[in-house]
Amino acid sequence: MAIWTSIVAVLGTLAGALTAGLLQHRSARTARAEQRADSHRQDQLGAVTDFAAALDAHRSAMFHRERLALAEAGAEHQLEAQTRSHDTRTAITAPHIRLQVLVPELTSAAQQAADAAYALRKATGRTELDAQRHAAKEASAAFVAAAATLLSPDNR
Predict the structure, then answer these.
(1) Does an H or E element contain 154, and which?
(2) Distances in Å between the alpha carbon of 133 and those of 12, 54, 108, 113, 118?
(3) Which of 57, 65, 72, 106 has its CA 20 to 30 A from that of 129?
């Protein structure tokens, strides 16, 4: 009878050790999954922030460029503004691609915001330029609002 008691005790110990090991493995796997999800969310937030900042810089450069053109400022000032606007447009490309890869749900809103910024080009008058600038700011705000909704911690 003592042997059976020993066997049951050993089996109980082994079962307990196995259960503890499985629980520890599952806990570690869950922690890694949460860490990956948090890292991915941070990457997404970075992509949104980088794109929004690049878009804001380009919108500002385009407004300045077109304002100088409408005011018929000197050729040197216009060339500087044109060069700056080309640089800021180029600076949108990488963040835009990164955003499309990491947060494809925002592709449409991002494209609308970019198109609105590009529309400042060749405004025919100051009133039109101001209206296009306002529309570009609204499109950027809509993009940021969509990103905030999508990436909200409550929306996980």
Answers:
(1) none
(2) 73, 15, 19, 11, 10
(3) 106
Contact status, residue 113 vs residue 140, Cβ threshold 8 Å: yes
Place of tokens 């999800």: 37
Report helix, strand or coil for 74: coil
Predicted confidence (pLDDT) per residue in 14-24, tens digit:
777 778 887 78
The tokens describing 136, both together, are 């570009």
Tell me the per-residue pLDDT of 133-153, one tens digit each, with 9 for 90 and over: 999 999 999 999 999 999 988
d(CA 118, CA 63): 10
Whether residue 141 contacts residue 113, with contact meaning beta carbons closer than 8 Å, is answered with no
The CATH fold assigned to 45-155 is: de novo design (two linked rop proteins) (1.20.1440)
What are the boundaries of each domain within the chain?
45-155
Tens of pLDDT, residues 70-80: 988 899 998 99
| CA–CA separation, 5 and 30 (whole Å) | 37
Q: Containing H/E element for 10?
A: helix 2-70
What pTM did the predictor assign?
0.79
